[in-house]
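ARCHIVE CARD
CATEGORY: sequence design from structure
SOURCE FIELD: tokenized fold
FIELD CONTENT:
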């Protein structure tokens, strides 16, 4: 089992490739997927699914190209489809590129198996209404999108953001995971549940 990180696109969004044996998941291809495709070809690994934590342009710019290259389905929450009517979703914001059209299939909260690994999917709204967290207990890892960062949280001043929802999602869905769980965010370095419970200033003095 392996987790590879590819910073992609104009905001160098972390794209994650999770590999188990000869199968892979790609989470948030936010730019040109050629570095991912080169890695997959060199490693002899086949993509099984493309997952989006949320539908902001910097996390989905490479969706169409990667889906076309691999023939694989894109999965995201339908609760975020409303964002595709905004510049923060479809692109074009402040001169950033527009997102090529893609089709996605709904995925929501629940438990499933992906590439032979148990995955717990949590609805974690706030940064966007349909933000998802993908928790893989066998990897001791959760992929949180822009919900929470090392010592910070995701922005909620974009369309359909909600600060109260975000804080509640972190406290009820993230801080209830094992303290050693590594949190892989859409930007910046990874952190852990325990570190953020103890040191994230947005939660200081908050009873968990």
């Amino acid at each position: 089992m392996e987790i590879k990180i590819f910073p992609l696109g104009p905001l160098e969004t972390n794209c994650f490739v999770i590999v188990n044996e000869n199968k892979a998941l790609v989470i948030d291809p936010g730019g040109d997927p050629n570095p991912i495709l080169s890695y997959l070809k060199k490693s002899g690994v086949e993509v099984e699914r493309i997952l989006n934590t949320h539908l902001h342009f910097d996390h989905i710019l490479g969706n169409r190209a990667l889906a076309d290259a691999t023939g694989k389905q894109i999965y995201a929450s339908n609760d975020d489809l409303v964002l595709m009517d905004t510049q923060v979703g479809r692109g074009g914001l402040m001169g950033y590129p527009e997102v090529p059209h893609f089709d996605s299939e709904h995925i929501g909260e629940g438990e499933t198996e992906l590439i032979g690994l148990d995955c717990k999917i949590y609805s974690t709204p706030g940064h966007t209404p349909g933000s998802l967290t993908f928790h893989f207990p066998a990897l001791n890892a959760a992929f949180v999108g822009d919900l929470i960062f090392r010592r910070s949280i995701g922005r909620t001043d974009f369309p359909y953001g909600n600060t109260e929802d975000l804080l509640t999602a972190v406290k009820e869905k993230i801080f209830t995971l094992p303290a050693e769980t590594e949190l892989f965010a859409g930007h910046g370095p990874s952190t852990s549940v325990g570190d953020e419970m103890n040191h994230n200033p947005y939660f200081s003095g908050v009873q968990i």
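CARD ANNOTATION: The two ends are 32 Å apart (CA to CA). The chain has a mean pLDDT of 96.
SHELF: design records, drawer C
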